[in-house]
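User: Can you help me understand a structure? I only have the sequence.
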Amino acid sequence: MKENLLKSMQYEEWANAIVLQSLRQSTDIGERLPQLFAHILAPQSIWLSRIRHEVPLVGLWPELTLDECAQMMAENLKQWRAFINAAAPEDFYKSVAFKLPNSDKERSMAVYEVVAHLTNHGTYHRGQIILGLKGKTERLPLTTYIAFLASLD
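Assistant: Let's start by predicting it. Here is the structure, written out as tokens:
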């Protein structure tokens, strides 16, 4: 389990780095694409705070520059790796309480499901960003999981 969760976070780092590079190299990206990128990163921090029973330090839709996004991305990765590496196997099955943004109903999911959610969430919004980059960059970034695996060779 630990190896799979670390690999998921490694994929997130790889894919986000590619998108960040594309955002920096593109012309006229507007405000929405950096907002979406910051929104990929914020839940990584928020969920780790929930797991640790801490108050999140960032909101769901923070207004960040690309440099601030790069800093958050590095800090998130550092914190997630430390958490996963220090966790006992049973910790990945512990329940994490949360409420959906549009509901007052308390819900929960296991820590390993949180990582799956973050990966899916990031993939979804990276797709939105890549669509928004069409015509604004020479080459659209490829951030699929299979491309990530190929990059490990």
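Now, to help you interpret it: The radius of gyration is 16 Å. Residues 2-25 form the longest helix (24 residues). Let me know which part you'd like to focus on.
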